[in-house]
Amino acid sequence: MADLASGYNILEKIGTGAKSLIYKVVDPSTGQNFAIKRVVREPDEDTRFLEQAITEYEISREIDHPALRRIFDLKRFRSWGRLTEVHVVMEYVQGVSLEQHRPTDMAETVQIFIKVAEGLDAMHRAGFLHTDLKPNNILVCSDSVVKIIDFGQSCPVLTRKKRIQGTPDYIAPEQVHREPLTARTDVFNLGATMYWVLTGKAYPTIISKNSQPGAYNVVAPRQIPAPHEVNPLIPVGLSRLVMESCQEQPIHRPRDMRTVITRLEAVQQMLGSRPADAAAPAEAADPPPPAAPPPEQPRPPSDESSVKLFEKHDGPHDDVHSAIEDVLLGDLDRSDDDLRPDLRPREPRPRPDDTPPKSEP
């Protein structure tokens, strides 16, 4: 007899979520392993957490990307006509979250950021936002596979939520103020995540983990140290991208994930560590033509140029690196243009059935 009403046998408990337990399970008929998120409604609770589980399933059906955890099925259980329990049948991912383990290799760190940004870009192109990206929602596997998990707070682009949803230390200002959410909301969440991964310190968002209930943090930008000021070994271009992504006003952030990906790839090229099997993302901006390296200063092979977050890097900074650094320091993002009223940034176009802006049910 199955351990769960949905027909699966429990192998072990692997996590907890919002009013939920997550199990590694096996399908007794096939022997295949899955993960199941089990959400049970307590007698005095509303249906909020059940609705989040249903949202996670419904949105995941619309998107297929290797950096997004797949969800296969949803089981609903009722008692006397009342929805009391939901089981979400998900891909079992044998990985460790960034919150559990911060990478120390710079090349590996940047590659993780790129894969996360590509997964978020796939969501945006399908017309959805994640809105709760954080280190605990990014799993890294031993084979370098990266998975974004937990789509319970995901929503269509331009949604204006009825209540504040997000995680302190990573939440964007427009989430706190319950304004329409855009791709730049996920850009902020990713920027705050990158800040923590690079520095080990939380970015001071409007609502932080240590905030008093109902209290907002007011922090001037000059009071927030950039990642390269916390750790001088972090490339300045990467540090600047992080800080721009965390700007309070969405218009001052990178306009979309495609821009973030291109700038991260420029950092990767500067490090000289792009994996040979990394696929070039579609529609990426053409990189600037690199200057030929001087014969007396050849670039080191990629397997010798890995930069550690906490170790000194003594590799040459040749003309190619300088050209890419110029891109990182502002030529690509054109942040000054964003401030001109005649060149307003374009937001991701929602799908036809997602307009006008929706409110969360």
Secondary structure layout plus pairing:
Elements: E1 9-17, E2 20-26, E3 33-40, H1 48-60, E4 71-79, E5 82-90, E6 95-97, H2 106-125, E7 128-129, E8 138-141, E9 146-148, E10 155-156, H3 173-176, H4 183-199, H5 227-230, H6 236-245, H7 257-271, H8 319-331, H9 335-338
Antiparallel strand pairs: 1-2, 2-3, 3-5, 4-5, 6-8, 7-10, 8-9
Helix pairs in contact: 2-4, 2-7, 4-6, 6-8, 7-8
Task: Describe what this molecule looks like in 3D.
This protein is an alpha+beta fold and about 350 residues long. The protein folds into 2 domains: about 10-90, Phosphorylase Kinase, domain 1 (2-Layer Sandwich); about 95-345, Transferase(Phosphotransferase), domain 1 (Orthogonal Bundle). It is about 30% helix and about 15% strand. The protein is built from 9 helices and 10 strands. The strands form 3 sheets. It has a 5-stranded antiparallel β-sheet with strand order 1-2-3-5-4, with helices on one face. A 3-stranded antiparallel β-sheet has the order 6-8-9. A hairpin with a 2-residue loop joins β4 and β5 (about 80-90). α6 runs parallel beside α8 and α7 packs antiparallel against α8 (about 320-330). The longest helix is centred in the first third of the chain and has 20 residues, at about 105-125. The protein is globular and about 60 Å long.
